[in-house]
Amino acid sequence: MARRQVCGKGKFRWNDNGVAAIQGARFVQRKSKSGMSASSPLRPVLPADIKSRKGGAPLVVLTAYTTPIARIVDRHCDIALVGDSVGMVLHGMPSTLGVTMEMMILHGRAVVRGLSKAMAVIDMPFGSYEESPQQAFRNAARLMAETGAPAVKLEGGQHMAETIAFLTARGVPVMAHIGLTPQSVNTLGGYKVVGRDDEAARVLADAKAVEAAGAFSVVLEKVPEGLAGRITAQLSIPTIGIGAGVNCDGQVLVIDDMLGLFTDFRPKFVKRYGELGQAADEAIAAYAAEVRARTFPAAEHAFPDVLPSKGPKS
Ligand code: KIV
């Protein structure tokens, strides 16, 4: 079996997972087990590499909004999702509805700068794609051109299938997002589980519709575990779960949730892997106390008026 090597601007690296989705890289070159380059032509890295992970090792996805966090995510994850959750976790908005194209472009660029291995996916913000496939294409093309990300994500199932087909036919790889779609919170009536009882058939139909439309993967948010497993078994594209149980092809979390940085509320599906908010609180409290006590800055943090003499030269 040919392994894949990613060649960038003088920088290339093997991906631990065997995935060639290396951000910022320009081409993929096939390499045989012997280590010799195969004769197949160079080709651009594509979300198809993510699609080909269906049924394989679980896809690891986290959101990222800044360059320093993207650099860390890049070391451990397959995809860095520039989610419109940025509006709530970094900008203090009450929902994702106020997020703009400009915000997504700014954060998207910052994240792409921090990636050399993982693939960036940029969320299309509310109001940027629902009106028509043409509007969606205009804005998706802008997100890709102005950030350098190779794919976008948009919310919606059967009613967005025509748009997903329109985008994918025109060179825009789409990650779909069904189940709880936070941009529709006002019509859904809250951030509730979607797909119990009578709703299950509709969510399954949504999954099949986005797959048929050409999405390369689909996020299942707050979908009951059993239904998410059935959808995963019936689809040929990877499912990426958030609050959808362990049977999905991958998992995504909002990074500020799992690091304990966003503490306004904590959904049941969030596991805290760190308490960085508490660590920041303690660090800032210690700084404030030392400034008030005049114990910071100490001598080693200040610049003397006269440099200490190095002594006479021998
Ligand atoms: O905006 C976001 O962070 C998302 C994830 C929750 C999937 O869409």
Describe this structure in words.
The chain has 314 residues and is of the alpha/beta class. The protein folds into two domains: 1-45, no CATH class; 47-276, Phosphoenolpyruvate-binding domains (TIM Barrel), CATH 3.20.20. It is built from eleven helices and eleven strands. The strands form two sheets. It has an eight-stranded parallel barrel, surrounded by six helices. A three-stranded antiparallel β-sheet has the order 2-1-3, with no helix packed on it. A hairpin with a 4-residue loop joins β1 and β2. α5 (133-147) packs across α6. Bound molecules: 3-methyl-2-oxobutanoic acid.
List its traits.
single chain; 314 residues; alpha/beta; TIM Barrel; 2 domains; eight-stranded parallel barrel; three-stranded antiparallel beta sheet; disordered N terminus; binds 3-methyl-2-oxobutanoic acid
